[in-house]
Specification:
18 strands, elongated, Umud Fragment, subunit A, Substrate Binding Domain Of Dnak, Chain:A, Domain 2, about 30% strand
């Protein structure tokens, strides 16, 4: 019976040994990098004998890393730690300094990511309903089309790739004369590319004379809009349409939903809007409640584009889940792709 119990314990002991070896190897690799850094930076200050001892300790730890012997690895790690403390103790960072450096590095990485790679935005209005709802929080890929300098509306490197149907965040070109902090970020869908001619006839989009197909998906589509950032939520109803935007090659570039408000008056004809080179023409998916390129025919310079919307990572609004209200988390929208 004792032998059987011992055999049953062996797998657990083996797992524990592998776990300990893995942890020791990780610690050894981290310390090895630190020891090499200190030796390279301060080795010239040491006597030849001390430098030789350090180099030997580093070599011993490197040789022990591939060997599956935790005692040998731990011994080599301890020996190198003693050598570094003895000969390079003056250069080792205190725990407080090490913590500060680590935090600083993390903040620097986060700042670079936010400025050049990924940025979070909150949807404040209903102009992109039903694709984006008020209270959606999204991530935007700032490297979708270019490497853009923050603050100034200029790109260091521009590789393009804009497509009809892309949903992008951009600085409103109507705000160019405003102070920087008062300029507004908008989010809309690209409808016209540089050189395109966009028209709206009978509420159907025409790009370069080609109608963009759409059909009714729901006659009575209910949703919630909001009157201002802190205003009341208002239940609305409209027609939900399935729209397709065609690419320059005539193939479908985007399939998405748009809303039409049958209770509002509609213009028979809007346009034509001739998109200048180096610019884009934008429209919101909530077609009757969107301030976009149709309002005065404004166009978005490519340098104003901050990036393409990727995913909804958080959503808070109505209807949602909360302990005492129907305004809360909309879990069904978490981590949904923006298309």
């Amino acid at each position: 019976m004792a032998q059987q119990a011992s055999k049953k314990a062996d797998p657990n002991q083996a797992r524990a040994a592998r776990k300990k070896l893995k942890k020791t190897r990780r610690e050894a690799k981290d310390f090895l990098r630190e020891a090499k850094r200190l030796t390279k930076r301060y080795g010239k200050r040491l006597q030849a004998e001390k430098l030789t001892q350090l180099q030997a300790g580093i070599a011993a730890l490197e040789n022990a890393l591939p060997v599956a012997n935790v005692e040998k690895l731990g011994g080599a790690l301890k020996h190198l730690d003693q050598l570094v403390e003895k000969h390079l103790g003056f250069a080792r960072r205190s725990p407080a300094v090490e913590f500060t450096v680590s935090i600083s590095k993390a903040l620097a990485i986060a700042l670079v990511l936010r400025l050049f790679v990924i940025e979070a935005f909150k949807i404040p209005s209903g102009s992109m309903i039903p694709t984006l709802m008020i209270g959606d929080h999204i991530f935007v890929n700032k490297l979708s089309y270019s490497l853009r300098l923050p603050v100034v509306n200029k790109s260091l490197f521009h590789w393009g790739g804009y497509e009809r149907g892309d949903i992008v965040v951009f600085v409103n070109p109507l705000d160019d004369e405003r102070p920087f902090l008062q300029r507004r970020d908008y989010i809309k869908r690209i409808v016209g590319l540089p050189g395109d001619t966009v028209e709206v006839k009978g509420e159907v989009i025409y790009v370069n004379g080609v109608p963009q197909p759409r059909e009714i998906a729901e006659q009575e589509f209910g949703y919630y809009d909001r009157l201002g950032d802190d205003g009341p939520w208002v239940e609305q109803e409209g027609e939900l349409l399935k729209e397709k935007l065609l690419g320059p090659d005539g193939k479908v570039a985007s399939v998405h939903d748009v809303i039409r408000d049958p209770g509002r008056p509609h213009l028979i004809y809007e346009g034509p809007f001739k998109v200048p080179e180096g610019h884009l023409f934008m429209m919101g998916d909530n077609r009757d409640n969107s301030q976009d390129g149709r309002a005065g025919g404004w166009y978005v310079p490519l340098g104003h584009v901050k990036g393409r919307a990727l995913v909804v990572w958080l959503s808070w609004g109505k209807p949602g889940f909360w302990l005492w209200d129907d305004v809360g988390f909309r879990f069904e929208r978490f981590f949904t792709a923006v298309r």
